[in-house]
């Protein structure tokens, strides 16, 4: 892996649920300080780093990747000291059994566990019960009074997981979307653009693309490109070719559509041309469901040409999300080459 694994590890292991992306925001500011001509944060917490174009500065491109990860908010502390949770983002509650978590209080980070009853103590009804997030409890190992003194309603909860190399892949929590945030940061460090480029680290994507929708108004770019992960169903559990989306190791994914957007054909055609010209491995993505920040820019400030580049990722919205190292490199290369070749003269009208 030729990229900065230590930075990727730092980004993915840091904690930041929707609306509380502070720790990620600090890393983004640090990495872009001295790289951008202007660095600013808005009242929602979006970070925008602007690199002025050398030849055509009035033509503006926005590149977005979101900082937030799925997590939880404490909604109640029981008399016995257990925490009830409210989901921030889309969870499959089945994967929450027997997980370690961290509760982020105003004073400190507190370790906790989501337990799972021993199977030999459950009857058939309990074993067959469908898991729901509202049935999940966090065990702090404290009595009710101590838990109530330490934790407040509204505190955030994230899963614990290290980021590791596994063969040719990287695995950990919150690759969605920190691996694309990482790719955006690396591209920002490499480009020497003719046009002005705004690199936007957005907030609250996992709860409705809220940061990107606000930025679509504030920035009003001529062209927008979003970076996010996408589904890789290249695993034994998925045998039906109808469920195919992308495959790990086949390169950056150029998005044609997802559940929130149909990308501009002229934008995705140019992305393909750049990839072919620069000999960058790539594949095409048609994602049946799910949305990305791409949609946040498409029509918020009138009709805009939008495109998207995705990193294929297995096991999305779990603590063991996995992406291929070569695909990460290809995404950085494609975004860099696309931005460096944008002169503001390409016609994206249909």
Describe the structure.
Helix 1 crosses helix 5 (175-190) and helix 5 crosses helix 9. The strands form 2 sheets. Strands 1, 2, 3, 10, 11, 12, 13, 14, 15, 16 and 17 form an 11-stranded mixed beta sheet that branches. Strands 4-5-8-7-6-9 form a 6-stranded antiparallel barrel. It has helices at residues 5-13, 22-32, 124-128, 144-150, 175-190, 210-219, 265-277, 294-298, 325-340; strands at 38-41, 47-51, 56-66, 71-77, 82-88, 99-104, 109-114, 137-139, 156-159, 164-166, 169-172, 195-202, 223-231, 252-257, 282-286, 306-314, 321-324. It is 26% helix and 29% strand. It folds into 2 domains: 5-69 and 173-340, 3-Layer(aba) Sandwich (Aminopeptidase), CATH 3.40.630.10; 71-159, Elongation Factor Tu (Ef-tu), domain 3 (Beta Barrel). It has 350 residues and is α+β, with helices and mostly antiparallel strands. A hairpin with a 6-residue loop joins strand 16 (306-314) and strand 17. Keywords: Aminopeptidase, Hydrolase, Metal-binding, Protease. InterPro entries: Peptidase_M42 (IPR008007), Peptidase_M42_aminopept (IPR051464), Peptidase_M42_dom2 (IPR023367). One of its GO terms (molecular function) is metal ion binding.
């Amino acid at each position: 892996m030729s990229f900065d694994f230590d930075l990727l590890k730092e980004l993915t292991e840091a904690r930041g649920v929707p609306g509380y992306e502070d720790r990620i925001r600090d890393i983004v500011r640090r990495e872009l300080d001295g790289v951008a001509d202007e660095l600013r944060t808005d009242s929602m917490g979006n970070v925008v780093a602007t690199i002025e174009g050398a030849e055509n500065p009035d033509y503006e491109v926005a590149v977005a990747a979101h900082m937030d990860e799925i997590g939880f908010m404490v909604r109640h502390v029981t008399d016995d000291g257990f925490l009830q949770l409210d989901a921030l983002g889309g969870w499959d509650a089945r994967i929450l059994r027997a997980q370690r978590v961290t509760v982020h209080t105003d004073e400190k980070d507190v370790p906790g566990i989501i337990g799972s009853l021993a199977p030999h103590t459950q009857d058939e009804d309990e074993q067959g019960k469908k898991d729901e997030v509202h049935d999940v409890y966090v065990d702090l190992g404290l009595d009710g009074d101590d838990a109530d003194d330490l934790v407040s309603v509204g505190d955030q909860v994230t899963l614990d997981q290290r980021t590791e190399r596994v063969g040719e892949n990287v695995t950990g929590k919150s690759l969605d979307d920190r691996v694309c945030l990482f790719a955006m940061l690396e591209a920002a460090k490499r480009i020497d653009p003719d046009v002005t480029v705004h690199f936007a680290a957005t907030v609250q994507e996992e709860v409705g693309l809220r940061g990107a929708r606000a930025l679509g108004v504030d920035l009003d770019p001529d062209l927008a490109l979003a970076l996010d992960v996408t589904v890789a169903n290249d695993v034994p559990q998925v045998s039906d070719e109808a469920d195919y989306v992308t495959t790990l190791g086949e390169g950056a994914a150029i998005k044609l559509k997802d559940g929130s957007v149909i990308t501009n054909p002229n934008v995705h055609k140019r992305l393909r041309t750049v990839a072919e010209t620069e000999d960058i491995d790539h594949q095409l993505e048609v994602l049946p469901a799910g949305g990305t920040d791409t949609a946040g820019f498409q029509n918020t400030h009138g009709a805009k040409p939008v495109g998207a580049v995705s990193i294929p990722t297995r096991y999305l919205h779990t603590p063991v999300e996995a992406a291929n190292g070569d695909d990460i490199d290809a995404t950085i290369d494609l975004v860099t080459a696309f931005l460096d070749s944008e002169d503001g003269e390409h016609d994206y009208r249909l």
